[in-house]
Amino acid sequence: MALSYDDVIAKYEPVLGLEVHVELNTESKMFCSCSTTFGGEPNTQTCPVCLALPGALPVVNAKAIESTIKIGLALNCQIAPHSRFARKNYFYPDMPKNFQISQYDEPICFDGFVDVEIDTDEGAKQFRIEIERVHMEEDTGKSLHVGGATGRIHGAEYSLLDYNRAGIPLVEIVTKIVPGTGKYAPEVAKAYVAELRDILRGLKVSDVKMEQGSLRCDANVSLRLIGSDVLGTRSETKNVNSLRSVERAIRGEMIRHAELLNEGKKVKQETRHFQEDTGLTRSGRSKEQAEDYRYFPEPDLVPVAPAAAWIEELRAQQPERPSIRRKRLKEQWAVPDKEMAAMINADVLDIVEETVLLGADPTKARTWWLGEISRIANEKEVALTELTIAPKDVAEIVALVAAGELTDKLARQVVEGVIAGEGTPSQVVAKRGIKVVNDDRALMAAIEKVCADQVETADKVRNGHVPAAGALIGAVMKETKGQADAARVRELLLGHLGQPSN
Amino acid sequence: MIKNTAAQMSAALEKGETTSVELTKLHLDRIAEVDPKVKAFLHVDGESALKQAAAVDADRASGKKLGPLAGIPLALKDVLAQEGVPTTAGSKILQDWKPPYDSTVVAKLKAAGVVILGKTNMDEFAMGSSTENSGYGPTFNPWDLTRTPGGSSGGSAAAVSAFEAPIAIGSDTGGSIRQPAALTGIVGVRPTYGAVSRYGLIAYSSSLDQAGPFGRTVLDTALLHEVIAGHDPKDATSLNAPVPAVVAAAKSGDVKGLKIGVIKQLQGDGYQTGVLARFNESLDILASLGAEIVQVDCPSFEYALAAYYLIAPSECSSNLARFDAMRYGLRTGEADGASAETVMNATREAGFGREVKRRIILGTYALSSGYYDAYYGSAQKIRTLIIEDYKKAFTQADVLVSPTSPITAFKIGEKSEDPIAMYLADVATIPVNLAGICGMSLPAGLADEDNLPVGFQIMAPAMQDQRLYQVGAALEAALVSKWGGHLISKAPALGGAK
Amino acid sequence: MSSLSRDEVAKLAALARIEMSEAELINLSSQFGSILDAVARVQELNLEGVKATSHPQPLENIFREDVVLPSLTPDQALSGAPAQEDQRFRVPQILGEAE
After folding, report:
1. Of A196, A337, B379, C67, which one has the greatest count of Cβ atoms within 10 A?
2. Considering just the CA atoms, what is the radius of gyration of chain C in Å?
3. Strands of the A78-79 sheet, one edge to the other
4. What is the ipTM of this complex?
5. Are A103 and A193 members of one domain?
6. Contact assignment for A158 to C91 by CB distance below 8 Å
7. Correct CATH for B6-301+383-490 of 3.10.20.310, 2.40.30.200, 3.90.1300.10, 3.20.20.210
8. Is B161 a catalytic residue?
9. What is the tens place of the pLDDT at every residue in A167-208?
10. Strand, coil or helix: B151
């Protein structure tokens, strides 16, 4: 019997636990000097260490340690004065050593929290997510399953392994159990992952691209009867690779658990995989017994003991918390909610802020980055930051428009020029000979020519049908190669045809 | 010429009395002659050895300044990766594997102009004390071909003892350099943990493994020690400290005023009479040279063997997980439809020998949940006690001494069916590994009852490796003058030596 | 007197991914009693309050700079591969799910 979400929350209280894996954006891997660049040709970023050739040894990447401590500090964690790496032993072909170097009983950061705010029936409400630990580990290689119907693991005839990703530094952020979210559990989880993403982005320690797998979430869900303090059996859902999926997966699992419990069945403690297409989870392997990972201290590595002074230095460098910064910018720039959300979504806050700090009007700066420049970036399939146009260029363009030296339309040509590598905005203006035509005599000549060419339309306007002027203005703009100020053209044209211009 | 020491060969090269090519050829001839009996080598690469030798000769001719071991041939334990050369660690699971990289030890040897003759036999993955556990058959002791040369570096020890190479590299996890050195009548040193890079040393037990030198004299061993030691950023456990002046110490050899501590727990029951006789004789010599002999007590040593046989198997069960038929090495069991898991299981069954499997299973057990604290955890604590015992002992003495092995070379097959008896062969060498300090074995003479070599073990604190050489050289000089030559000159000829 | 049954050895062999023959399982099971007795001596002492040593040298904080160095070429990387295809390691079908 299919239950509705309301049925579920009327009877049960969800308890959450979230494990987020973040790929750090170091240049080199966690334990070797191979590049971490995404999308390289298969097995071009491997060496004896990350292929686990006999005799090879790991050496810890200092930057990965620093990034992890930064994350710990941003999540209000304690930083362990002494922590160790441990081996987690299990066999799997995408893991070359057949053990993962991870951290076990001595993680580098522990006991932190993140506050998130969501809209509830009673207005905005804050929830505190407590962080159990933040620890370092390494990523696995990627397997390509060949043969079989779906290209998925089931039914495949064989697999092809690429170890470029093997050994990329991962940070795992584990929450304590999160009770008390009630019906808002899915939203709270989503808000938590979003907040985490923004914090990590602010720290500049990861690309945090869920779609590329640089931020991955596993969601543990269990239900207990309202009023009971006995925890239910949890399921662990993997493959939750977008913010929307976090919400859907948790909602789906809550309903699935409730259906089982209502039927008097047991929830199995198992790993489940989220299916983007259906929004449901399917059972992963269910084992007769829990895997015995045989953790022990990694003998090839020595303990990590960050100096207190270093930790304080990193603490002093912590950026403004994303939630606080968003609030501040929204107020300073007077941005409507929807536009603010669009900027956050498109990840342009940094670049817009930089442009504004160079003197540009916040609305204009936002419009350029979110509009024309984003469009070009999309067209070229590159990130905004990869384009050659910089905040100082946009600030200059905004200034030129404000000074009346460019029209919006001309400014777009300048943007194009800057992106094409033709130089700074003023250089592009000079090179392309772009200038606003504000010589009224030249404009009048063009207007007279157009009115002569399109007598019928001109007459319509003369007779008071002002909207028809659009076609004439367009023709004048064409005549002047777009260099005229459209507002001035309109003014002169309407005057020429005996109509008031406003 | 091949019976000379490396130092003598080096002098001859320096004076232009011989060339590296000539030396290399002589050793290759010797290998061709005696190795069918000794079986010290798994792989000999004469062509590339001669090429290396010719390059050193050319450098010398051009007046380039060369190190003391430039142009000297060497035998390399097959546990060290050498680019493009088969490296098997004595295991079938790595048959025909050719590393695409050089271990740091090999890189240092090459940089020093040392000529690598080939790879020597060993107990599979260095697990054993007799070289009988090799996947490629045993090595035979040049002193008596019916006996083992000890292990796990039995191939390297036998090669040096049989004049197939003047010097060799071994690795020592529980005594695998010192015990075969003792059983073949040569010198072997296990340097301080972290003194020689482990990068490219195929891991058996990461916290215990250490590569080190073999030679027929204390000085030759020191010369090789100096070449391979030093900090390596590729090994996170490598010590960033100056290499102790081992060559200078080997040349000085003075024990006057030194305190030498005899460890009470490493003698007595289970030690062969002839072994103890030679050991005590050496003590008398050291005393006559001006050293003060004191007795020291190391009560936790009684538990060293047990701790070792938990720690080493535990680490090996994890270290050897990478041999899974996916990326390199043997792959078997690939019938139609066989899964990766099936192939892994079948390959590991077929590729690993009996002792390796025994230790993997033991280590898997010791680390498994519910047993960890009782076994692995307790062993790690015993390790602390052993370190403390040493610390205390070293406040009473500058070096500590014991017989290297309780017994002389045993017969092939004698202990291979009894793992516990085999494990006892390492009883005197293991504490050094657990504490991460350094140790040397040098010849103390032949046991009266079997006329086989006895080893004298010297131990020194971490990064005090020069003390081994200082004491070793003094004892060696006294013994050589007593015997009228090095002990090794009493070894059987094996063939018409040149 | 310690012991380890044939089934316990089989479980460990499965964890260690070794497909042991019946004879091997039984043989190992019969040897394990005396081996476990020998190693269980580590439990004879009172070890309360004794620190565990997992590493013989007191080193800490050994790191490398975050610098990219040349990798192996794909040919070198795949040089030991039992099977390969499209510059990847070819392996038999993988049954279980990844972690």
Report:
1. B379
2. 22
3. A78-79, A109-120, A123-138, A169-175, A12-23, A215-225, A235-240, A271-274, A281-283
4. 0.96
5. yes
6. yes
7. 3.90.1300.10
8. no
9. 999 999 999 999 889 999 999 999 999 999 999 988 999 999
10. coil
